[in-house]
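I had to read the description of the data format several times before I understood it. The format is easy to grasp once an entry is in front of the reader. For illustration, here is how one protein appears when written out as sequence plus structure tokens:
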Amino acid sequence: MFLIALRFIPTLRFEGQRIHEAQLEGGYYPGKSVVGKIRTLTPTTIPLVSNSLAKTQVLGLTIDLRRYRSGKRTSMRHEGLYSRDYIAFCGMFLTSTAFFWFLFMQIAKMKSLSSFSF
């Protein structure tokens, strides 16, 4: 979690700059004094916190969907083929053989019909 938080620091900084620049473009100018700098924090931090909460919600959903929190580990060993896999391979082979045989017969039939001349 700490590394994820570190990852968002540059993003938050750039977003804060964009929000501040957008407010300056909109005519918000609190002044250059210390009080003015403090006044700039509130309108900047509220949208920044709102955006970061939305991002953390999306990140939490992503973590849940990828099952990082499930605690169940996946196995690294290779699973072998079962008898149903061999049956499926044979079925696919027979289906593709029948398809190509049918296609060949149709082509041969077309060639034999085109050899007749009237």
Summary: The chain has a mean pLDDT of 83.
